[in-house]
């Protein structure tokens, strides 16, 4: 099933981004694996909790956890050949975010959720893994920075809900939603688009 395949691809992308952050922070093998695994499956766990799926799929079945672990180990061993680590982290994170936004919304709809709940749960699924990753390595989460992050996730999950509501095959929503969310995130990184902050703030030394 396409949603399962994309789910595994999303886990790989997010786990790789988490593991790369762990390598960049000079964590040991265990630390890199912990950050990679929690980044890879964290969003899915939050999604399942919100949908009342107990225990969460990633904690009840071995494939998701295994995929995240193997990905983390590969990144730990192969990171010397990966150039531009930070850029790679951002691209992997964007791809994983798009995948989880669309698959999260699809699973929410399949579980009987409304279009609104699908949009919100899909976006939550997409951003949760990155938030957990950043908290583990003591970084301000991307979600709370000026970068466009939650907006692309909402776009991807909304596309899925709209396609589902229009009666088109669900696989179309999965693909288009993933492309839309990932594309907007990558475009925002490239063009340095961000949301505005409050004007006339005092200087940092005045706070």
Number of helices, counting only DSSP H or I runs of 4 residues or more: 8
Number of strands: 0
* Secondary-structure element pattern, one letter each: HHHHHHHH
Task: Give the structural class.
Answer: mainly alpha
Structural Rg: 17 Å
* Average pLDDT taken over every residue: 90
Domain count: 1
What oligomerization state is this entry in?
single chain
- Poorly predicted runs are none
Q: Percent helix among the residues?
A: over 70%
* General shape: globular
Distance between the termini: 53 Å
Q: State the major sheet.
A: none
Strand % is under 5%
Transmembrane segments: 6-23, 30-50, 62-82, 89-109, 172-190
Pfam families: Gly_transporter (PF03458)
Main location: membrane
Domain Glycine transporter: 5-79, 91-163
Any descriptors?
transmembrane helix; cell membrane; Gly_transporter; membrane; mainly alpha; 0% strand; globular
